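Researcher: I'm preparing a figure for a lab meeting and need a structural model of a single chain. I don't have an experimental structure, so a prediction will have to do for now. The sequence is pasted below. Please return the structure as tokens so I can convert it later.
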Amino acid sequence: MFPMCASNSHPRGTLVLASGSPRRRELLTLLGLPIVVRPANVQEENHVGESAADMVVRLSQDKARAALAQESGLILAADTSVCLEGEVLGKPTDPADAVRMLRALRGRSHTVLSGVTLLDGQSGWMCTELAQTTVWMRDYSDAAIAAYVATGDSLDKAGSYAIQYGDFAPVGRIDGCYANVMGLPLCHVYCLLRAIGQSPDQTPVAACDRFNRRMCNVALDILAARSC
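Model: Understood. Here is the structure written out token by token.
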């Protein structure tokens, strides 16, 4: 965790999602809170000497601040990246780059990191959490890579893959939060909302398990942690 303290108005309890990602929006609805989508335009690049963890934390904060130019409510921003032996794999530049990344990831483990920031536009309160999941990829074939890249699904994904894409199913197993690999670790979001007194009555565990059709074994540990 990296706690830090630092338009339009909406009813208290409304979350402004500073992302245009359909996956993040879909996951966030599982919390049962009203949502307003305001994508933040931020240059996603790695600074010289910056670790992958520091990068996703910084970018999530930059996105939250960028959304503040349009909104004054409770802003949620996230940034996700894949790290393979020290190399940060963001979104591919083109299909050939997607193929390169998927070949590099094949049959190996890597880390998925997400920085998640909650910013209260009224008070200036801000807090950021870091989620980390270890992912082991299957030994899929070049033909499977080509078929997946041809769908276009890989082009807006960090590391060029979606864990939930059934036809390709690139992931063998994980250690950590599944929703984090999708781009929005919901238990971390809940912890941030709890820190500011805006969490929903129910944790996202049951809804997330139903949505992803799997039982999470790390949720209780995440929820037991403190934010800020």
